[in-house]
Amino acid sequence: MPTDGEIAAFEAGIKLGALYHQFVGSPVGARTAAGLEKAIEESISLQPYVRRVRVEIDQKMLKENVFGYGELEGRMIRADIEVYYRGATARARLEYDPETKYPMMRLLD
């Protein structure tokens, strides 16, 4: 039987995976990035056990097309999440890892 801490950690990973796969590919521009960050935070915060979500889009990586927007890429997202389950708290992060050149998810505590 998993511990409450293990369940909290599992839930944090699920939330970050959902965030990544739900929003990558979304249209985004310099003018709309802050709104998209807030929309992602609000969407993920509705999921069970989520206590806190913080999302930042690295606009330096944004490549706008001739119409003034680009697509959200996984490497552009930095997200921190805190999940609380029955007295146990897990904190996890999604962020681009320049060494692997891939957005990685990791448990912070």
Could you describe the largest sheet, including whether it forms a barrel?
Answer: 4 strands, antiparallel
How many structural units, i.e. domains?
1
**CATH architecture identity:** 2-Layer Sandwich
Separate helix tally: 2
CATH class category: Alpha Beta
Order of helices and strands: HEHEEEEE
Question: Helix share of residues?
Answer: 25-40%
What is the β-strand count? 6
pLDDT below 50 for ≥5 consecutive residues: which ranges? none
Radius of gyration, in Å, reads 15 Å
Net shape: elongated
Q: N- to C-terminal separation? A: 20 Å
What structural category arises from helix and sheet content? alpha+beta
Fourth-level CATH superfamily: 7,8-dihydroneopterin aldolase (MptD)
The average pLDDT is 97
- How much of the sequence is in beta strands? 25-35%
According to CATH, the fold-level topology is Pantoate--beta-alanine Ligase, Chain: A,domain 2
Strand order of the largest sheet: 2-4-5-6
